[in-house]
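Prefoldin alpha subunit
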Amino acid sequence: MAQPQSQTISITDLDVPQLSEVRKQLEEELNHLTNSFAQLKQAQAKFKSCIENVNEVKPQNKGKTILVPLTNSLYVPGKLSDPDHVIVDVGTGYYVQKTRPQAIKYYTAKVDYIRTNLDTLEETITKKRDNMNSIISVLQSKIQAQTQGGPTAARS
């Protein structure tokens, strides 16, 4: 099957209602991308926090009483019996026992993966913002032309 050919239309060829619709669509895309960027930043911070927490589990703390978090605000006392191994949440309810260096490597890989996604997403957001600024500029000039010279000036 043949690939459908994409048509390119200059934004200066669009009329005011069409430009407004394109601007609205770009705003929605930008909002979605910005929210995704914020969520990725939060995930990256969480994984960085995990690396710091794994670094706090040290062999010299074996047998010491620690506070074990059950939730963000609920902790129970416990004794550290095996400081060389940690349990890592690998997602969807699965947990894997890893050595401390393996856990740090795992979380570092997650942080790096998210960083590459953030870089790509940031480039996309920048391009969308540039497109948005172009649309707004053309839209403003067309509206100004309509108010100054009537409908015939907007078509030229």
